[in-house]
Amino acid sequence: MLFIKFSCVAAYDANVIESSLLPLYPWQLVHDGQEFLADYPVTFSYLIAHQNPPPQGKRKVKQIKVLVILSTASDKQYKSIESKQTVINQGLKKTSQEGRACLLSWYQETEKPTIKRLRAYLTERDEPLDIIHFDGHGFFKRKCPNPECPKRDTDRVFYSLNTQKCQFCGSVLEEPQGFLFFDRDSPGIDYRSGAEFARLVGQSKPMLVVITACKSALAYKSDSVFNGVAQKLLRQVPAVVATPFSISEESATNFVEQFYRALGAKKSLLEAVKLAGDAMRHHKYEWYRPVIFLRPDTDEDGNLFEWEVTSVELPPEVTPKDLSQINKNELLDILKRMIPPQFNQLLFKLDVPQYLMPSSDNPQTERAIALLSWAEAPGGCGLQKIKQALDELLK
Ligand SMILES: [Zn+2]
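# zinc ion complex -> structure
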């Protein structure tokens, strides 16, 4: 496959950007007079060379951990969206069954996915995440910076790009930037800037952030081409897939499902976006809308992961014949390292009541602890039984 790259340098002249629509051009639509270049095996990606140290190279994974942020926040102008969680699940079905992907649950079903809960989850989690997907709404606007503005905390402090001053307090508006809409516990929308979102998700070191939100990658009429949400994210993350233009619900759904299916089949990011774009072809002129942003120091095809063979890795000092001797902590350590299909087999062997165990999309540690708690509780099988079953399973 041939990849053509449109590369935009960080030291780009701010004055040129001010009057230029360069970052807005849908380069995917380059046409030779007869056909789109994208009809050939050609894929476009945008490379942005931020000057901070580059993220590390490919990540070795046994199982990709995917966190989905599903924001239902919207107002009259932005119709509510359907959940992409089911679609992502569907796309990753085969990969999950093979134990190579896992969707994390980070809030209770009765709760709203607020940024406060997300922050708490990401802060408490000690392992890095591999993919973070934001699905919701976003816009690209200028904000009144005055904390005393009578309209603070409402959507009235956001203005279109050609407005200069806040009409309620007279403050000079901030430069335009991308905002994502988050849910809040009280009614209304929690608007968070791309920069804030980037800092927050950056702490869990994802290799890829996917944003299916209107205008998530738009950068326009400002002193920097790097103020769209996607561009800001590239400071922290090696790769971002986002939509700079509006995109229909149906297209987004087709795209997302096929995208995750391709990633799960170990395709590169560029191939995955290409294949997923093909899946939305029946919606005319939307297929080019999801765009890939990469750091130039990332693998040029967007190969982000190096898949390791999935199997239980026992600590070197513990061989299966020693299992009967190990203590509870060592046992927990082994259970934590198991891949879901093997762990499920163990649960089956031990006859663990299904309703007592967290499902396989929960973190493995949580499931391992649940198993030990059940085993030691009245009616449980006891630790020795787990060791025996493990011994048989690992032989
Ligand atoms: Zn104001």
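# post-check
Residues 9-19 have pLDDT under 50 and may be disordered.
The pocket of zinc ion is lined by residues 144, 146, 149, 151, 157, 166, 168-169, 171 (CB under 6 Å).
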